[in-house]
Amino acid sequence: MAARLLFSRLGAGAYTAKTTASMFSSVGATAGTSTQTSLTAALLSKRWSSTAQHVADEPDANDIRRLDKLRNIGISAHIDSGKTTVTERILYYTGRINEIHEVRGKDNVGATMDWMDLEREKGITIQSAATYAQWGETNLNIIDTPGHVDFTIEVERALRVLDGAVLVLCSVSGVQSQTITVDRQMRRYNVPRISFINKMDRAGANPKRIIEQIRGKLKMPAAALQVPIGAEDEFQGVIDVVTRKAVYNRGVRGGDVVFEDIPEHLVEAANNARNELFATLADVDDEMGELFIEETQPTDDQLYAAIRRATIARKFTPVLMGSAIKDKGIQSLLDAVVRYLPKSTEVKNTMLDIDNNEAVVDIVPYSHKPFVGLAFKLEEGKYGQLTYIRVYQGRLEKGQFAHHVKSGKRVKISRLVRMHSNSMEDVDSIGAGEICALFGIDCASGDTFTDGTINSSMSTMFVPDPVISLSLTPKDKNSSNFSKALNRFQREDPTFRVHVDSESKQTIISGMGELHLDIYVERMRREYNVDCVTGKPQVAFRETSTRRAEFNYTHKKQSGGAGQFGRVAGYIEPIDPEEHAEQPFEFVNNVVGGNIPTQYMAACEKGYMDGLREGFMVGHPIVGVRMVLKDGAAHSVDSSELAFRTATYHAFREAMKASAPRILEPVMTVEISVPVEFQGNVLGSLNKRKGIIMDTETQEDYCVIVAEVPLNNMFGYSTELRSATQGKGEFSMEYKRHSPVLQNVQEDLIKEYQKKQSGDK
After folding, report:
1. Where are the alpha helices (DSSP H) in 472-564?
2. Cα–Cα distances in Å, from 615 out to 131, 655, 726, 747, 748?
3. Could you tell me the sign of the dihedral formed by the alpha carbons of 753, 756, 758, 761, in that order?
4. Of 94, 415, 470, 677, which sits most exposed with the smallest number of CB within 10 A?
């Protein structure tokens, strides 16, 4: 009984080891009893016999069968390529939904995976949505991701936890800017992909050109597995070049897949496509290469195996085609997902052993091992925070405790669900390789959870830096929902940042683009009833002097009784703020003869610091000024610390006005990467924004431009760059230094500040 209780605490793996060790005993009941007793003792001392260790390391046969029939896939593409429509058909043909609704359908229902009101109104995917389905005997975990570059973090974290992906391309537009970004993300996380050319019914559909773009722009060997039967409005179906059969979708919503002989006029095209597939595979697969040299035609099974090997090795992408809106080609795509994309056991994942100097350890993707999971997405639901987790190793069960590696806390798994868009299904346990969601877990995106027996952490996902900022002010200043909304959005989205500017006291929100921030402002209004006003954030200007100026100031105040008296004399002079970056100001005491008593020197320095805090031109801090105190006078009765502090403050202000003051603005180093054909447009836009080109470098078909541009001129540049480069341009910027503004700009800034000051009064 004690042994059985111990087994229940140590888990199923220990119990399996115990029963198997007993099975191996073949010398009668007595021997079996002694084996069980010795094993119990070994368990109590946490030492395993070599036989028990070997058996416990073997995965369960049922677990192996489950993992063989499991695929974790994502649907990714450039915006408006039709990936949500593809996902809708996948859910319909797998029996997950009973009727199809379009993204911008006339029934105003919207696609299943676009469940947010904003998504249905704008006709775009904003948040990645997870679901699961079954195709034949294979279970599919599917994540539909956004196509807009502003929501790239949703694609990033989806691809971080997926084993394979379907890259959807438009048959007319082909490889576009976000396609290139998604390709880069797939390469970052080593995700194999199948390419699906959608919208074959569109005017101008040209799958051959799209395949050439995949090879040329994405630098990925590709070949068609299908040849279209007809095109544009006469698109009827496809020819499978491996089986040499014509495939048609007939019946209600294309639910009946019919195989027929190839139409005579397309036999040659099908043979040429098969030969091209063979030749392409010969370049990336050794077995196909040998057959190609021997001039031996491969069998269908050899082609299937070679396509799978090359796809999983990320040396090749098979290309399929169809029209999701016309219900054609989706079943063949599902067959390809099952046949060519990897199982969880075929993908190498690693973790870092924290106790062993972060040594890299391979993850064993079976359920009998200690639990390891990665939280990749947070979402605030009506039942609290929903945490999406990919279970990489072991099993996660309802009621068990999990160890949050980052905080070291133990958390109880009170509720475990599988997601279907915004609906959910409660489950009792989830095995290795699965994707699920938890309630009531306090964590952040990218956090690792274990069962506590191992202290390891998985690498987190790449989070790009925000490229645009806006000031945000709630119309109702007393609304507590304002901070609640900002805190929630920051937890959900790592690319959404919030800070309060220490000088302007404005709340500044930063994100990946203007649409990104507009969506959050709109969500605050809808979900939290907080109306906000957005505007350009106040740039962190500075003021400085440009020449030496003398001062001799007496502060005298008499109002009955003890008065105030203090005189200070000296000069101010400019210093280079870059050379004194840590402290861009200096106070020097050169007073001799005790004209200013030493006990008032600290007050004089405080008066100088008071003057630095706010300039008189635009109200921003003053930098790059040294104040030298040479002389002064004190009164035995009326002098005080306050008198000398006030005298120094006014003396500094008067001297600043006489020192030809200038306003400094932050200058940013901007690095822009664009295709070569847009180089002229980008250089022109930088000149218009008063940028100075520092360097240009051409790398193959891309050009990298480095420029220094005033931050005040960079607002709205994200949108301008995308429109000028068809969405293919990217830029990053970082602070370089503060430099003087142009004289006319300085005059405008001073007028604007004075107008604001008079308005406030």
Report:
1. 481-492, 514-528
2. 58, 12, 43, 15, 16
3. negative
4. 677
SS3 readout for 579-607: CCCCCCEEEEECCCCCCCCHHHHHHHHHH
Q: What is the pLDDT of residues 110-131, one digit of tens each?
A: 555 554 555 555 555 566 678 8
* Spatial contact of 504 and 470, defined as CB atoms under 8 Å apart: no
Question: Which pair of tokens denotes residue 17?
Answer: 């080891």
Per-residue tokens: 557: 């105040």
In angstroms, the CA 669 to CA 673 distance is: 13
The CB-side HSE value for 263 (13 A sphere, CA atoms) comes to 13
State the angle between helix axes of 679-688 and 717-724 in degrees (0 to 180), rounded to the nearest 10: 150
Window from 41-50, 186-195, 374-383 with minimum mean pLDDT: 41-50
Pairing of strands 222-224, 317-321: parallel
Beta strand 359-362 with 350-353: parallel, antiparallel or unpaired?
antiparallel
Residues belonging to the chain: 761
CB 76 within 8 A of CB 159: yes
> What is the reported pTM?
0.66
- State the pLDDT confidence band at 43, using cuts at 50, 70 and 90: very low
Which single residue is written with the structure tokens 């100026």?
549
Tokens at 525, concatenated: 């209004």
CA distance 285 to 281: 6
Give the torsion through C-alpha atoms of 400, 401, 404, 407, to 10 deg. 160
Give CA separation, 301 vs 297, 305, 437, 614, in Å.
12, 6, 38, 77
- Tally Cβ neighbours within 10 Å of residue 760: 6
Whole-angstrom Cα distance, residue 255 to residue 328?
Answer: 9
Q: Which residues contact 69 (CB under 8 A, 6 or more apart)?
A: 137, 138, 139
SS3 at position 655: helix
Name, in order, each residue with C-beta under 8 angstroms of 695's C-beta and a sequence gap of 6 or more. Answer: 705, 706
Coil/strand/helix, residue 52: helix
Radius of gyration of the chain measured on its C-alpha atoms: 34
Cα separation, 624 vs 573, whole angstroms:
9
For tokens 């395949």, name the residue: 211
Angle ∠(725,727,730) on CA atoms, nearest 5: 85
* 225-240 pLDDT per residue, tens: 999 998 888 899 999 9
Alpha-carbon distances, residue 472 vs 489, 499, 673, 726 (angstroms) = 14, 10, 30, 29
User: What's the CA gap between 102 and 82, in Å, rounded?
Assistant: 10
Cα dihedral 118, 124, 130, 135 in deg (nearest 10): 130
CB 362 within 8 A of CB 411: no
Angle between helices 2-10 and 28-44 in degrees, nearest 10: 50
User: Cα(100)–Cα(82) distance, rounded to whole angstroms?
Assistant: 14
- The pair of three-digit structure tokens given for residue 275, joined into one six-digit string: 């030969």
CA–CA dist 123, 121 (Å, integer): 6
Spatial separation of the C-alpha atoms in residues 535 and 507, rounded to whole Å = 10
Alpha-carbon distances of 669 from 2, 275, 304, 664, rounded to whole Å: 69, 51, 51, 16
Q: Contact 111/88 with Cβ under 8 angstroms?
A: yes
The rounded Cα 685 to chain-centroid distance in angstroms is 28
Q: Is the dihedral of CA 450, 389, 134, 425 positive or negative?
A: positive
- Per residue in 639-691, pLDDT tens? 888 899 999 999 999 999 999 999 998 888 887 888 888 888 899 999 998 89
> What's the farthest any 2 CA atoms get from each other in the chain?
115
* CA-based torsion, 141, 146, 149, 152: positive or negative: negative
